[in-house]
Amino acid sequence: MSAPTIYWQGGESYWLAHVPVLPGCVASGTTKDESVANARRAFRAYLELLETRGVSVEHWKDLDPDTFAVKPLPADRVAPEDVGALEEHELRDFLHRMEASRSALVALVRGLSPAELERKPTETTWSVREALEHIMESEAEFLAKLERWPDDPFNTLQAVHRMAFQRFTVMDPAETALDHTVMGRRWTTRKVMRRILEHEFEHHGQIKEIVAALGADRPPE
CA separation (Å) from 129 to 43, 49, 135? Predict the structure, then answer.
């Protein structure tokens, strides 16, 4: 059996190192070597996080990340370990790790005040709220990648739209009066609906200007 592999990708001052043998383990760095070194440390840290949250790590505990091979991530950004049908236990284990990861994240930020959620340590770093919003938005985008429309180059756009559309079609009557604060910002159901339509119309105009500037020959709308 070949040694587990750390796959790197990136350039200039931002590099990522993935450890697919332990799905979820990743690290970044300002150089390739730094990202790989950080990934070796992250392997142990991620195992500790999972074990603390009740996930069995027996499958990985005897692996030594210092012996892992190092290779560039393939051009299509799919590691060999990413390929193949899932066995039933793999999906079950993924869901367990997914819940453990989210539990650890929520525990980390629970109890922060609205001011602490908004505060930025420096001008160039995100606030906690911005980081959490990025996670939420990315999770929806990753989920959209499961949609399969090989002839549609806009599959992600359409998939996210379908998820949003479905969310409103199954809305409980009580949810239509929603009025609460999320990450320090007030949201109501009507505001969410308004912002969805506003945001798309705003960028419709932006994209229309870009297409016009490109001189593209477009059919009438």
Answer: 26, 22, 10
Question: What angle separates helix 88-109 from helix 32-52, to the nearest 10 degrees?
Answer: 90
| pLDDT (average), residues 16-22 | 94
Residue 17: CB atoms within 10 A of its CB come to 27
Is 216 a residue whose pLDDT tops 60? no
- Could you give the C-alpha distances from 179 to 3, 99, 115, 174, 199, in angstroms and in order? 52, 27, 20, 11, 20
pLDDT, tens digit, for every residue of 26-35? 999 999 999 9
Confidence at 217, pLDDT banded by 50, 70, 90: low
From 5, 1, 3, 26, select the one nearest 16 (Cα to Cα). Answer: 26
Residue 220: φ, ψ to 5°: -60, 150
Q: What angle do CA 85, 86, 87 make, to 5 degrees?
A: 120
Residue 221: band (very low, low, confident or very high) from pLDDT cuts 50, 70, 90: low
Choose the final residue of a domain: 84, 118, 152: 84
Class of residue 27 by CB neighbours under 10 A (exposed 0-12, middle 13-18, buried 19+): buried
Pairwise CA distance, residues 29 & 34, whole Å: 5
- pTM (two decimals): 0.74
Taking the C-alpha atoms of residue 25 and residue 219, their distance in angstroms, rounded to an integer, is: 46
Q: Is residue 218 part of a domain?
A: yes
Which one of 20, 49, 84 terminates a domain? 84
Q: Domain count for the chain, please give it.
A: 2
Read off the DSSP letter of residue 84: S
Res 183 pLDDT > 70: no
